[in-house]
Amino acid sequence: MGFSKDGMMVGSSAMVGWINTKGHARIKQYYLQGSKQGQVIPDKGELPLTGVPASVGLDGEMIYLAFQLKFQTQLARQPIVLAFGSSYPKNSHLSEHEDKTTIMFDFSAGSVSVASTDIGQMKKNHGILGIIGWGLILPIGALFPRYLKHKEPLWYYVHSVFQFVGFCIGLAGVVLGRRLYNIIQADFPTHRGIGIFALVLSILQILAFFLRPNKEAKIRKSWNVYHHWVGRIALFFGALNIVLGIHIGGAGSDWKIGYGFLLGVIIVAVIVLESMAWMRRSKKTTTMDPSFQMNPVE
Asked: Does this UniProt record's set of keywords contain Cell cycle (predicted)?
């Protein structure tokens, strides 16, 4: 039985009870630092146990855990992770569970409800939407104005479509994150604050699109500077929040490797495109009109 901050097993503190091969009852607190066996640490955790001894009871196929906690502040709605397995722990090291579920226990009302949605899948969807929107489509869309400006007006339409689609996907990720917060009351103010900040910047970019002045307007240069830098800042904080979300979500190495590879590809593409653009500019400046002579002969 794990007490979780976000409805997930990783990062929670749990009380685990079992009957060993000799018929003796055992119960310990564990800190679930990660998903690997070595990261499930016995006799560690954040549960404030009292001096009342914890116990395990067995009645047929049912096993009961009894323990007493005393929190400093009153709990409201608390995600509780329930899991079971049939393998005996070896030297207090647990094997992987066979099944689990998450319930919401309302301590203020004394009621219990099974989570109506799969919180784990919601978190995965939140991360997928964030990576696709902020980590893939929006960065790619930002490349077109800088490196395809000579393809007028194709670059403008492609850029607009990419950024609008990326904004919609990123917005969906924020909405899903807000729904997750309402369900599990996850307390990650930095991740939430950066997400809101990046969303506000992206909304300002959408508004700037509709207020885009003509090329002949005097404020067009200032608008360009504003649009470019607000977009870059938004992309930076979007990437930062993806990394932070992968960390606090306890995502496995697959997520880290996947996003690291995606980010690396984008960075390499920027370096290559920037080098090609620099070479084109250098070639233009060094190429001179063959009819022009420094010392014409009369």
From this structure: no
